[in-house]
Amino acid sequence: MHEIPADLTVRSDPYQLLRSIAQDGPVQQVLLRGRKIWLVTGYDEVTSGLSSQDLSNAPPLADTEGQSGEREGNLLFESLLATDPPVHTRLRRSVSDVFTARRIERLKPRIEQITDALLDTIAPKGHADLMAEFAIPLPITVICELLGIPDADRDAFRRWSIALVMPPADPATLALAATAQADLARFFAELIARKRTEPGDDLLTALALSSGDDRLSDRELQAMAILLVLAGHETTANLIGTGALMLLRHPDQLAAIRDDPALLPGAVEELARYAGPISLGVARFTRREVELGGHLIPAGEMVMFALAAASRDPGRYDRPDELDVNRAQRPHLAFGHGIHYCMGAPLARVEAAIALGGLVRRLPQLLLAIPEGRLVWRTASTRGLSELPVTFAH
Fold this sequence. Notes:
The protein is α+β, with helices and mostly antiparallel strands. It is 47% helix and 12% strand.
């Protein structure tokens, strides 16, 4: 039986180990932190499992022990992250129109302005940490504007947001994340009340003033806002940062995008497939006995879907371990599948395409500033770089 090492998600190349595990079958039992779980690595098996109503997104009480805060006090257990239909359906429906392709298209000019403003600061220097100075502040600024966070509150909001997604390395970090969640909950409780008396043209106002069957309680509103902070900046920041690193690793692909910017939307899809923000996967829990990949999985078992492995399944893709921004096979699982498919994927795609296009256009002769072996990978809910130091012509 394979054992998933504790450092898998912070390795520079977790794909080699996932590939070796997958050779023994697309569905198998493995050890994860001393516990037997089921790991699913095949593309077809992942799509089947994530579509199954026999697997729950809500962790049993036994699987939440030891997390920061009590389950009853953790708003994320009441969010889209940990609910099933019909609750999940109602929560998702309440914000689904915000992330339509038409609405995201209207956001593009503003995302371009934010990108150019960040690059205006970076470009004259000839060097930068692309994570701290670009990949992280871009999506945080976008989510602030989307939610209607007042300018005066944004510095505190950014500190809480970053603390919330820090890797759970030790008890102090866990405590910091719990405090950040509590601070964000209080902040959003006050902001929601303010939006009802001083409405703005933003998502939080729309949710706070909504009525009908899909209306969210104040607690559900707070949970939704905190989830949007998590999903709205961490995943996108890591897609941009890791995507930039992959292009630096593959200068021929970087050159192809520079020569033909029309490749950018497809390049973002390929970068998400090749090195997306989710490395190990997402967990589900069997409600009853489930057949998956030729195995009967008993009720009450944890099933981990390795999205990264599925997006490099050789049964699905030609040359799965090669980065090819001209790849014709676009579908991948980096944003999940089924009813829990990432709601913010359209926004993440647009932000990543604009951000990477700006880097390629504005920072010529872009190079990694330190040996790649010195790069530090971190993981909280998604996998990304602690920093990405680069140099460029100026």
